[in-house]
Design a protein that fits this description.
heterodimer; A: mainly alpha; 2 domains; 4 helices; 84% helix; B: 234 residues; alpha/beta; Spore Coat Polysaccharide Biosynthesis Protein SpsA, Chain A; 8 helices; 39% helix; globular
Chain lengths: 122, 234
């Protein structure tokens, strides 16, 4: 079995999994675009692995696999940072929401006490 | 300049599992000063909320714990929404005296500053003093007591701190002071007396693990905001 066949199978399998997840609606459409592009790249490089060698020579990289690793790791880093950014914005929203809920509950208790008895709060 | 009215005034008390002290604190303030008291219940597992309610406070119950600052901000948002012109924050553990409150209000009433901090700088171990000097140096904040929970805010400060810019802070100390400083608000300190805690212990200085986490967190915060302009939009 040639290495081209192995890489093609791996690439197609990975791309297939990603596309399947997108189609099954497991990924929010915002993330789906990123993963869709990634699936295409993986599929393409899997079928034509020699492209990496060609790009590496053009960029003056002696050992082509390092280029692949560096690009791959770079993309992972970008993705992880974007996750943390998103996470922070969610955290901010969640805290605001919890505070809003507490405020509403406090307001509700004032209304019910003023309605029930003649107890004046203020 | 016209004299600003600092009324109505609200007292904000963040409380987490302070069932033994919160009722007494609320009723002391209510009887001595007749001010509106709001207790923000930071997801207590004991009867803190009902004790506070029984003592006459409005209780804002958080659905899950947001930490000291998250609770205080809840109160500040409430104060802003309901048109309070002054908000005073106090700890629920009985460290702060109700008698200190009028002294805090005086500088605000005259309009000479936006925030007044009740300071008790002598406290704290050598290590804590050392950490504070470092934070002061990095952030450019010149106050002596960086962590005091007894503070009075005017409406301008309430508005700033209720905004979502301040939501991701975790403690009512350096992060808040840096925000105030960037917004060019005037912060002043007045010396106050403090009781030793009736019950419980400092949430920040509870264990070595908590201390190092706090130091790291605050250190990063100071460095990140170092001569860095705050985003304007809320």
């Amino acid at each position: 079995m040639s290495y081209q066949l192995t890489s093609a199978i791996l690439g197609l399998f990975l791309a297939g999994t990603i596309l399947w997840l997108i189609r099954r609606d497991h990924l929010h459409s915002r993330h789906a675009l990123w993963w869709f592009l990634l699936a295409l790249i993986v599929m393409f490089l899997g079928i034509f692995p020699s492209i990496i060698d060609w790009i590496a020579t053009q960029l003056g990289v002696n050992y082509p696999p390092t280029l692949l690793f560096i690009l791959g790791m770079g993309m992972i880093l970008v993705k992880v940072i974007s996750i943390d950014l998103h996470q922070s914005s969610l955290e901010r929203k969640m805290r605001r929401l919890a505070q809003r809920l507490a405020m509403l509950e406090g307001e509700k208790s004032i209304i019910s006490t003023t309605n029930d008895g003649n107890k004046q709060i203020n | 300049m016209h004299k600003k009215s600092n009324e109505p005034i609200v007292i904000l008390i963040p409380a987490k599992n302070e069932v033994n002290t919160v009722g007494q604190i609320v009723s002391t303030i209510k009887t001595r000063l007749a001010l509106q008291v709001i207790v923000i219940d930071d997801a207590s597992t004991d009867k803190t909320a009902s004790m506070a309610r029984a003592a006459g406070a409005i209780v804002l119950p958080l659905p899950f714990s947001l930490g000291a600052w998250g609770a205080i901000q809840t109160g500040l948002r409430y104060a802003f929404k309901h048109g309070f012109n002054t908000a005073i924050t106090m700890d629920a553990d009985g460290q702060h005296r109700a008698d200190s409150i009028p002294a805090l209000l005086a500088p605000l009433a005259s309009g000479q500053c936006d925030v007044v901090i009740g300071a008790y700088p002598e406290r704290g171990s050598f290590l804590r003093q050392f950490a504070w000097s470092f934070f002061r140096f990095v952030s450019g904040v010149t106050l002596s007591d960086l962590t005091s929970g007894l503070r009075a805010y005017n409406r301008t400060a309430i508005k700033l701190l209720a905004s979502s810019n301040a939501t991701l802070l975790d403690y009512q100390d350096m992060g808040v002071l840096i925000l105030l400083q960037k917004a060019k608000l005037h912060v002043s300190e007045i010396p106050i007396l403090m009781y030793s805690r009736i019950d419980g212990h400092s949430r920040i200085f509870s264990s070595w693990w908590a201390v190092s986490q706090y130091m790291l967190h605050t250190g990063i915060l100071c460095i990140a905001r170092f001569k860095h302009n705050k985003r304007k939009k809320t």
